[in-house]
Amino acid sequence: MALMTPQSVASTAPDTLKFKMKDAIPDNGVCVVLGAQGEGKTAFAMWMMEHAHKQSGGERTGAVYMAPPAMRRLLPDWVEAPRQLRAIPRDSIVVIDEAQQVAHSRRSSSKDNLDLANLVALSRQRNQLIFLVTHHTRKLDVLTVTDAKRIIYKKPAAGHVMLERKEFKPFAGRAYEKFQQQKGKSQKWAYVMDFNNLNFGFIPSKMPSFWSEALSCGMADLGTAGNGATLLG
């Protein structure tokens, strides 16, 4: 049996036709959402949060980690805004936007990174589905990325593909090429990579019912002086 490499898998694994949502998105664990600015990464993650909440009959709550006060006012009442990773509730769907602020590759030994590693490791036992949203994997600690059940691409920028981590560059290149071939607005699609089962393919990408443009830049002041956030240390 030939040894699988990122290059061989990215170039030979076929796409899954009619990728069903229940197969594309796991019940729990970590999904890393990547892509260029303006491609709808945050909207997709929040749509998935709302979708999973509805699928559970409202039993699973939502959480947007470190959501500033202005963003919290735009979120529905079933979504919490914990200020600490340890405070994220069980049986929840979690969006960690601008995830590099928590799990930056240059701060791999930081307390935030260690807390996130613990959150990731226990996500199945706690029935938590966690969406980490950022632009490309170089911004994240590599252990966090490799523990993800899914890598989900919104349309990546060509520059992100060129400067991607070497382990993920073939997959970023594949996603870029697939989006180039896809018809219609790129924001309407998400390209899912399931490395557990080597399933790849597009699923629809929508916006949550509570979406507003203000939510798309809700993390703009994260880490700046005076807003109460301390992620930048």
Strand order, sheet with most strands? 3-2-4-5-1-6-7-8
Contiguous low-pLDDT stretches (5 residues minimum) are 103-109, 224-233
Percent range of helical residues? 25-40%
Distance between the termini: 48 Å
Q: Quote the beta fraction.
A: 15-25%
Mean pLDDT: 85
Count of helical regions: 10
Q: What structural class results from the helix and strand content?
A: alpha/beta
Supply Rg.
17 Å
Order of helices and strands: HHEHEHEEHHEHEHHEEH
How many DSSP-defined strands? 8
For the sheet with most strands, the description reads: 8 strands, mixed
Shape: globular
Provide structural commentary:
With 233 residues, this protein is an alpha/beta fold. Helices cover 31% and strands 16% of the residues. It is built from 10 helices and 8 strands. It has an 8-stranded mixed β-sheet with strand order 3-2-4-5-1-6-7-8, with helices on both faces. A hairpin with a 4-residue loop joins strand 7 (189-194) and strand 8 (199-204). It is globular. Residues 103-109 and 224-233 have low confidence and may be disordered.
Considering the chains and any ligands shown, give keywords for the structure:
233 residues; alpha/beta; 8 strands; 16% strand; disordered C terminus
